[in-house]
Structure formats: structure tokens, C-alpha cells
Amino acid sequence: MASGLITESDLVLPTLRALVKNADAGVSTTELQLLLREEMKPQGEDLALLEGRGDDKFSQKVRNLKSHDRLERDGLADFADGRYHLTPAGKSFIEKFGGIDESYSAQGFPENDKKEALRPEFEYTFIEEGSSSHVSRTVRQRSKRLREYALKFFADKDGRISCEGCGFEGSTAYGKVALGLIEIHHKKPVAVHGTSKKPLKEAIKDLSPLCPTCHRLVHFKKGTVMSIEELKKTIADA
Ligand SMILES: [Zn+2]
Ligand SMILES: [Zn+2]
């Protein structure tokens, strides 16, 4: 975790993963605590002991998942006889979003943007190529579709695609062999509402074609992502 502090939302996907692994027996809150602790490795403030209690802030956050009915509210899990069980909606949520949270962290997206993109009602979410090996096949296929769509969308009639930062265009620099050499960057975590009629058209607004160098630069500083405006200004000021 970049900030060191784990939020209640951060617990959702790891909890669902724990429920997938314990599909038959379900998981009690005590077991969940241990499983999440092992996976998420809380540190700093999260390990601070609560006044007058034997446990720390992290345990409190896990307990709050239940007291706030965080998973039940979205229909992702049921709680019965002291144990959480995964619902079919929870299972499909994991298939759609599993691995994406890590991938978005690796891309440097801020917490709020991540939260915004990981909601059960979203049907499509996309990730950048090579940003995570943990995502499900469904996500990879959807991301690939978006990428292909974006490449067509950004290309001119001759197949040339220019970098939105510096204007680099493959075939101008290297000749025919580099026609269409470009990377598709996600300015924001891309998520599209399930009921949207044109999810790809909708998603394209959050994408930008960048040459490999500019793309490296916007992700160069760990934990943040440079905006296209900043990128252009950086180039202009150099
Ligand atoms: Zn560029
Ligand atoms: Zn990017």
C-alpha cells in the first residue's frame, strides 16, 4: 500500500479472494482477520493498538467490514452463523476485477480513482498491457478489445498514430516498419457501466496514445501518474 494505510475498500477484493478459497466452509471474521493480515501485511499506523483493547487498527477495519455491512450491501457475500459466504455476485465481481486493484496501484492511480473504477455495477474494466499478471482471463480479453479499438480510433486513414505528448509518429521516425508503433495509456482507471450501450466508445475518453518514451515518463515516478497536460508542459519547458 503506497500510503501505508489500508482503507475499508482495500479489504473488499482480498476478502472475496479468501472466500473463493474457502467456498465450502465460508470464513469467520476471526479467520478473515488472520488471512487478510497475512496477505495485506499491514504496517505503521495500522498496527497501532487501540486504546483499552487488545487489538490494533487493522483488526478494527476488518471488524468494520461486518459492522458496516460492506459486502452484504453490494450483495457480494452473505453472513450467516458467524461466517461469510461468497454469493454468485461476489464470484462474478472477482472474475471481473480480480488483480485489477494491484494493477491500478502499479500504474500509480490514486485511491479515489481506484475506488471509483471498482464498483460491482461496472461491466467493463481495462488495464494497461503488462501491468499485472494476476488479472482474470475475462479482464485480459476485455482489455485487449479496448486496446484494439483504441488503436483504430486514434489512427489516421493511413494507420499513423501520433503521441499525444511529443507528437512522435513511428513511420516518420523509422519508416514503414514502425507504422502504428504506439502505446495506449489509461489516464484514469477505465471502468464502464454495465448498462452502457457503447462501452468501448465511452471508455476511449480515458485513454491516450503515447510513444514508449512519453509513456515511461508519465509512470516514471512511483505511486503517481503524470497528466497529459503536465507531460506537454514538461516537454515544452525542457
Ligand atoms: Zn511521446
Ligand atoms: Zn500508462
Summarize the structure.
Helices cover 45% and strands 11% of the residues. The chain has 238 residues and is α+β, with helices and mostly antiparallel strands. The strands form three sheets. It has a three-stranded antiparallel sheet with strand order 1-3-2. Strands 4-6 form a two-stranded antiparallel ribbon. Strands 5-7 form a two-stranded antiparallel ribbon.
Overview of this structure, please?
It is a single chain. With 238 residues, the chain is of the alpha+beta class. It has helices spanning 12-21, 29-40, 57-67, 70-73, 88-97, 100-107, 111-117, 137-154, 170-174, 199-203, 212-218, 228-237, and strands spanning 27-28, 77-80, 83-86, 122-126, 183-186, 190-193, 207-210. It has 2 domains: 9-96, Arc Repressor Mutant, subunit A; 121-237, no CATH class. It has 12 helices and 7 strands. Helix 1 (12-21) crosses helix 5 (88-97) and helix 2 (29-40) crosses helix 3 (57-67). It is elongated and about 65 Å long. InterPro entries: HNH, HNH_nuc. Keywords: Endonuclease, Hydrolase, Nuclease. This is HNH endonuclease. Residues 163-219 form the HNH domain.
Topology:
Elements (H helix, E strand, L loop, with lengths): L11 H10 L5 E2 H12 L16 H11 L2 H4 L3 E4 L2 E4 L1 H10 L2 H8 L3 H7 L4 E5 L10 H18 L15 H5 L8 E4 L3 E4 L5 H5 L3 E4 L1 H7 L9 H10 L1
Antiparallel strand pairs: 1-3, 2-3, 4-6, 5-7
Helix pairs in contact: 1-5, 2-3
One zinc ion binds next to helix 11.
Keywords: Endonuclease, Hydrolase, Nuclease
GO molecular function, one term: nucleic acid binding
InterPro entries: HNH, HNH_nuc
